[in-house]
Amino acid sequence: MAAALTSARTLTPLDQRPVVSYVDSCQTPDGGYFFARVAPASAQDTYHVIKCLALLGQRPLGLRAVKDWLSTMADSSVARNLRGLYFLSETYSDLQMSTEPLCKGLDSVWALQNPCGGFGTVDRVYVEVPSELEATYCAVATLQNLGAPVDGRRVVAFVERFRNADGGFGGEGRSILSSTYYALATFARLGQSPEDPQAALRWLRQHEERWDIQYLEDLFWLVRALEALGEGVRYREKAAAFTLGCQRPSGGFGRAHWGIATLEDTHHAVAVLKSAGYLGDEGLG
Exposure winner among 74, 172, 186, 197, fewest CB in 10 A? Predict the structure, then answer.
């Protein structure tokens, strides 16, 4: 099925209707979203839905129910950890909800500040964490969303510790795509540039040329890292073909040309297709 979708759509924009239908089907009775389609909803999945729909120029059909559910999450344990607070603060901001109720969770952000000016561990991270710079990016975004102060100078200095001679970013002298993305995304959030943006761009272009893309998140990181530098992906048709091959019969997307659809992967797919110029608007107002 995936191969057929790719060959049929490689040169044509994505039909948004099946994507929106898939997203709508994942709304849970409590008002939020969860890819498994059962309550309780997930703050992470709800975040990905709102981001995805915004890229499509849409809002949830049950917007009032979504906002009501989000309001209840301000006093939950989810709002007392960095990732949960990040997802909630981004979604509140995107839906123009007051983020003041979330400020009670700020202590959980400050607790992760390290002596080097960033957030989270300085050395090794859990294998499930894509980058040692993810926590710093999430912390900066959350603090900005909640109107809290951010010492941009110290954060930039911390992130620059992970810049390598080849122009990319990553710990232990090894540049990786996820860390390069989180580094450049952090600079963009702060309105700053890396010390050598051209070196970072060269590293990204070399990565794009090798096309070391195995999963949809790899392509998402590449596209968004380039966008942080004001650039776009060069191999647009190739990016679209890979992404369309990840679409499942449900209308959603999986992380590769196999596996189940998830809301995170669907958000990533829509972001890539929009950047590549393959996002159609058939049937949508």
Answer: 172
